[in-house]
Design brief:
- With about 220 residues, the protein is mostly beta strands.
- Strands 1, 2, 3, 4, 5, 6, 7, 8, 9, 10, 12 and 15 form a twelve-stranded antiparallel beta sheet that branches. Strands 11-14-13 form a three-stranded antiparallel beta sheet, with no helix packed on it.
- Helix content is about 5%, strand content about 50%.
- The protein is elongated and about 50 Å long.
- Pfam families: AIM24.
- This is AIM24 family protein.
């Protein structure tokens, strides 16, 4: 699995393949065929393209989405030209999968190659203790573009056991061993602001992508 931070690249530099970072907040897709993208993420395009709602992929996947709340509405973009995608000016991180898999928080998916296989699966080891956590798994060979709230960090879990706040863990190598780590000090303020006493624990050879917060703050409703 290869990944790239915008900070290590010149603006507009193209990566191998047809996904590239126009800048840290915008993805540029050199389209010659089709790609799956988050609904409403198109900000501009040049060329000839068609945009269609992407169905659930069968009754099984539809039921998984309905029961778990996991996943994000997607659209299939077909055609030729340059496609520009973004979401709420979030930072964008790119992965290139080489016959492998990645587990992703569905709400962080911006776009991925249409030939990648996707499924909704329970996070192994988390179980009921983590609230029945479900994520989206993408497998195969191709590009994946994810959004993060703030500039993320990539942690190599092969260096040492790794523990991450569940709301800050955006994606990780699908073959990592995942469990739950409990804090023995009741009420210890170990998370970012919510005082969790539990984190996801990762072991094995692989990486976990961690965003700089637990996600954007939702403004209170005014009446």
């Amino acid at each position: 699995m290869r990944s790239a931070f915008f900070g290590n690249m010149e603006q507009g530099q193209q990566l191998p393949g047809h996904f590239a970072l126009q800048n840290s907040k915008m993805l540029r897709v050199h389209l010659n065929g089709d790609v799956l993208a988050r609904q409403g993420s198109m900000v501009a395009f040049q060329g000839q393209m068609d945009f269609d709602y992407e169905g659930s992929g069968g009754i099984g996947k539809f039921m998984k989405k309905a029961l778990t709340g996991e996943g994000v509405p997607t659209m299939r973009v077909k055609g030729q030209g340059l496609l520009f995608l973004a979401h709420d000016a979030d930072d964008i991180h790119l992965f290139y999968l080489e016959n492998e898999g990645i587990t992703v928080n569905g709400s962080n998916i911006l776009a991925y190659d249409a030939h990648l296989q996707s499924d909704i699966q329970r996070v192994q080891g988390a179980g009921i203790a983590a609230g029945g956590l479900f994520n989206t798994t993408l497998t195969g060979t191709g590009w994946v573009a994810l959004t993060t709230h703030g500039t993320p960090v990539m942690l190599d879990c092969g260096r040492a056991p790794t523990f991450v706040d569940g709301q800050s863990a955006v994606a990780w190598s699908s073959h990592l061993q995942v469990g739950v780590n409990r804090t023995f000090k009741v009420g210890a303020l170990i998370g970012r602001g919510s005082g969790e006493a539990m984190q996801l624990a990762f072991q094995g050879q692989g990486f976990v992508l961690v965003q700089a917060s637990e996600g954007p703050t939702v403004a209170p409703h005014t009446h």
